[in-house]
Write a structure and sequence with these properties.
The complex is a heterodimer.
Chain A lengths: L1 E5 L2 H7 L3 E5 L6 H12 L9 E4 L2 E3 L10 E5 L6
Parallel strand pairs in A: 1-5
Antiparallel strand pairs in A: 1-2, 3-4, 3-5
Chain B lengths: L1 E4 L18 E8 L3 E2 L2 E10 L1 H18 L2 E9 L1 E4 L3 E9 L2 H18 L2 E7 L4 E5 L1 H6 L8 E3 L1
Parallel strand pairs in B: 1-5
Antiparallel strand pairs in B: 2-7, 3-4, 4-6, 4-8, 5-7, 8-9, 9-10
Classes of the chains: A alpha+beta, B alpha+beta.
């Protein structure tokens, strides 16, 4: 299935891109996807250090990914 | 209302002066300071996930309205490069009485710091940079940030 991943802050810098579209196999959850991309881009944050967003809502890391989902891995926030 | 802005926050333009029922107004102004745990800071850069930041910020304002006896609340957060003394965040809460306004103001800033997807990169005088994070607070859901950690 085709999905889009957007990157922000430290993850954007490590990936060197702001977003990408990719095709993934069935049965993959968000944490699996993060671990795969973390190996590819050498992300500075472990899977348990980030939060997960699908289609602009916070979600749990173990939810399945669906066709056309827009996924964002949320590094620890630091607003204010 | 919650807004993100790329331009300087001009506080005096933001007050609502039409609320006849309001007896207490509390504001919080978060500014860029020149040091973080002994490291001299030259400037900051705030980056946001804009769609989600605005949606999450609006939820926080609505929560404040339902939890506390306030009339209205507004929060604006900067993005982009900020210099020392620039305003990073400004909150105003209007209420009949001061206690609710104080409590709602604290609730809003605490929640913004833990939930709204905004990130802060510090540029130090020595030329180094760091993305600020606070994993301990984030993991435990602790809202108060009186200390900082950094992503190397």
């Amino acid at each position: 299935m085709k999905i889009k991943v957007r990157y922000f802050a430290s993850l954007r810098e490590k990936a060197g891109i702001s977003q990408e579209e990719m095709t993934i196999g069935p049965g993959m959850d968000l944490r699996d996807l993060y671990l795969d991309l973390s190996k590819k881009y050498d992300f500075p944050l472990a899977a348990n250090e980030i939060k997960y967003s699908v289609n602009n809502e916070y979600v749990e890391p173990n939810i399945p990914i669906n066709e056309s989902d827009v996924i964002v891995f949320i590094p620890p926030v630091a607003g204010g | 209302m919650f807004q993100m802005t790329e331009t300087a926050i001009k506080v005096h333009d933001l007050f609502d002066t039409t609320l006849d029922q309001v007896g207490g107004i509390v504001t919080f102004e978060g500014r860029v300071r020149n040091d973080n745990h002994g490291r001299r800071v030259e400037k900051l850069e705030y980056e946001a996930f804009p769609e989600m930041a605005e949606a999450e910020g609006m939820k926080i304002i609505q929560e404040a309205k339902s939890k506390f006896a306030i009339e209205s609340a507004y929060c604006v957060h900067r993005t982009g490069v900020l210099n020392i003394r620039d305003i990073a965040i400004w909150i105003v809460v209007y209420a009949k009485h001061r206690e609710a306004a104080y409590r709602a103001s604290e609730y809003i800033i605490d929640q913004v710091k833990t939930r709204v997807p905004i990130w802060k990169k510090e540029y130090y005088v020595d030329g180094q940079t760091d993305w600020v994070k606070c994993l301990a607070c984030a993991a435990k859901g602790i809202p108060h940030h009186d200390h900082f950690h950094h992503i190397k």
